[in-house]
Design a protein that fits this description.
- The structure is a single chain.
- This protein has 279 residues and is mainly alpha-helical.
- 67% of the residues lie in helices and 0% in strands.
- Helix 8 crosses helix 9.
- The N and C termini lie far apart (40 Å).
- 41% of the residues are buried.
Length: 279
């Protein structure tokens, strides 16, 4: 099997549907708490898929409303700005990467893991008094390169998954061995092509090796959040592999054992609530 080059990745990415304008608006203003929610509601209403997803979330057990929500304006008022931005991002990204048949890979597991990392990153950011929406978004996007490989090179990625299981490797090492490339570099390339901010691009590029110079602290937050998701057994592959955590990254967070235990509990509770939405 021939290695995959960055040039091939760029060619394939150019064939992907572009992110909806509203998704790019949210990404470019993810840390803006003063977004006009009425304007946001009008933009969501103009997209049928986003409208359906928003109403589905608003009427789920997660929000426990006694009155059926029938309009986007009602939904946004109920959910609040932060939750609305999260839904827009998740729905918009999922729409760009349609599910396909890649043996060993389940899109449902991928998104559950991504949501777990996003939730953990948001909780870490809250403890550290960082911008929680930025951390959540970085967690949601951290493995986006894997979706590119799965949807655009399904046979090759299936071979990498099989190689991983046969040899007891990490997914990153298996990708490098079989594909000659990994989901981290692909994710960073996608972030550049889609004009993500440097902060977001660096978090994606450094979520496995956050100690690299120039990446910024957000990569450390996502790295540890990824480890927490794995420790909770929420992975994108069925083997529930626990990943190695950078000692430097862990120490830099300066979290006590009590804080870590609380973080695990809160992340697990958030996942249970998110699971209610999917029902």
């Amino acid at each position: 099997m021939h290695p995959i080059s960055i040039a091939q990745v760029i060619e394939k990415v150019s064939e992907l549907p572009s992110l909806p304008g509203i998704v790019m608006d949210v990404l470019n203003n993810i840390d803006d708490d003063d977004l006009d929610i009425q304007v946001l509601a009008e933009k969501v209403s103009s997209d049928a898929a986003l409208t359906a997803k928003t109403l589905h979330y608003a009427n789920s057990a997660y929000f426990s409303t006694m009155v059926k929500v029938t309009t986007v304006q009602q939904a946004l008022a109920l959910m609040g700005l932060s939750a609305t931005k999260q839904i827009i991002l998740a729905a918009g990204l999922a729409g760009c990467f349609p599910e396909n048949n890649c043996p060993g890979f389940k899109h449902e597991d991928f998104w559950r893991h991504s949501n777990a990392v996003a939730s953990a990153a948001k909780l870490i950011a809250k403890q550290l008094q960082m911008k929680t929406d930025v951390a959540y978004t970085a967690g949601l996007l951290h493995d986006i390169g894997a979706l590119v490989l799965v949807t655009q090179f399904p046979e090759e990625y299936a071979a990498a998954i099989a190689h991983r299981h046969a040899n007891g490797l990490s997914q990153l090492d298996a990708e490098r061995a079989i594909l000659g490339i990994d989901h981290v570099s692909v994710g960073a390339e996608l972030a550049s092509l889609w004009a993500f901010s440097d902060v977001m691009k660096n978090a994606i590029a450094g979520h496995h090796e956050p100690e690299q110079k120039g990446l910024g602290f957000l990569a450390t937050v996502v790295h540890v959040a990824d480890a927490i998701a794995h420790a909770l057994g929420v992975t994108s592959t069925p083997d529930k592999q626990v990943i190695e955590v950078s000692a430097q990254a862990w120490e830099s967070l300066q979290m006590s054992e009590e804080n870590v235990a609380l973080l695990m509990q809160e992340t697990a509770a958030e996942l249970r609530r998110l699971d209610e939405i999917a029902v």
